Amino acid sequence: MKWNSLIRGFKHFLQLEKSLAENSVEAYLRDVEKLAQFDAFFKQENGPEAISRNDIEEFLAWLHELGMSARSQARIISGLKAFYAYLELEQVTNANPLELIEAPRLGSKLPITLSYHEIEGMFSSVDLSRSDGHRNRAILETLYSCGLRVSELTELRLSHLYYDDGFIRVIGKGNKERLVPIGHAALKFIKLYVESDRTQLIIDKGSEDHIFLNQRGRHLSRISVFNFVKKAAEMSGINKNVSPHTFRHSFATHLVEAGADLRAVQEMLGHESITTTEIYTHLDTAYLRSEIMEYHPRNKQR
């Protein structure tokens, strides 16, 4: 069978059967389309059922020659394994060419985090006299208070806020819902924004329930949040590659450093597996080592 029809079927499978978010679906499809391109260029487009293990190895070598990182290759292999599992389910093929293919080994790379002092600096960099000041401060406070993904932040609704109980309802990956505690400071700035600056906007139809809106009254895009966070980091003099996800990493790291239960952190982050959350125990160890190396008298240069 041809690639296009099977990729369309795979897309519907991911959306309807797996209930994956649109960004995740698109990532899977890009991975499969790369193999389809390889098949067209080098194998006369024989179709996915004709791809062999040897073809996959040639494909990975081709990706390597193109300069693709081991991390990107590992992600593509994961996407292709999901695609061929779908083909087996649909009885398009009986053989999975990726069955014995191992992903490239990845070095452990700890995510960038911010200190509490740096985060406070970013809070202070927000000009509250601007028309978007309270919104921007509320965004930073919410990212740090709740450890949200940027897509979870932009999809927050007024109807998801439980002021009296101190919780927000978050729609995470795969449309899975979770309740996350939210701090007083974040709630304070959300309330200031909702009751002042937000009331001055002409709100676009369909965006009435979204908390964070742009100046045209439409719900805020992820790229707008990325740009604002990067600008706030620059304004506060932070020389790190800061993104909204940096706040998520910092949220989890600071909780673990303070002794929070790892299962509670897992629940708040919306991780399916505890092993994903365990990276923050490694961050905690790295932090402790850096503190010892800096402050222990035997480590100071004489």
Overview in brief:
This protein is mainly alpha-helical and about 300 residues long. It is built from 13 helices and 3 strands; from the N terminus they run αααααααβββαααααα. The model has no long low-confidence stretch (mean pLDDT about 85).
Any descriptors?
single chain; DNA polymerase, domain 1; hpI Integrase, Chain A
What is the secondary structure topology, with strand pairs?
Layout: H1 3-17, H2 22-42, H3 53-65, H4 70-89, H5 116-124, H6 133-146, H7 150-154, E1 161-162, E2 167-171, E3 177-181, H8 184-195, H9 222-235, H10 244-257, H11 262-269, H12 274-277, H13 279-295
Helix pairs in contact: 1-2, 2-4, 6-8, 6-10, 10-13
Written account of the structure:
With 302 residues, the protein is mainly α. It folds into two domains: 87 residues, Orthogonal Bundle (DNA polymerase, domain 1); 179 residues, Intergrase catalytic core (hpI Integrase, Chain A). 55% of the residues lie in helices and 4% in strands. It has a three-stranded antiparallel beta sheet. α6 crosses α10. The model has no long low-confidence stretch (mean pLDDT 84).
